[in-house]
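Onboarding guide, step 5: your first structure request.
Type a short instruction followed by the sequence, for example:

Predict the 3D structure of this protein.
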Amino acid sequence: MRAMLSPTITHELETALRGLRYGSIQLVVHDGKVMCIERIERIRLPAPPIGGAQAGLTGTPEAPAITEG
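The system replies with structure tokens like these:
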């Protein structure tokens, strides 16, 4: 048996896919009917240059100085 998608669902799928470069589209189905379309978009960040550090993510923090007083 081949399921047919309504024009509304087809339109919504096309809208969800439009402009999506990285991610996924999930259909939620109840009792054989599409109830929800979920779009998860991932944003790929450029890789940092080799040897470069991202602010606050690399290196070890300096220990606070101990003074006697």
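Each response can be followed by summary notes, for example: The chain has a mean pLDDT of 82.
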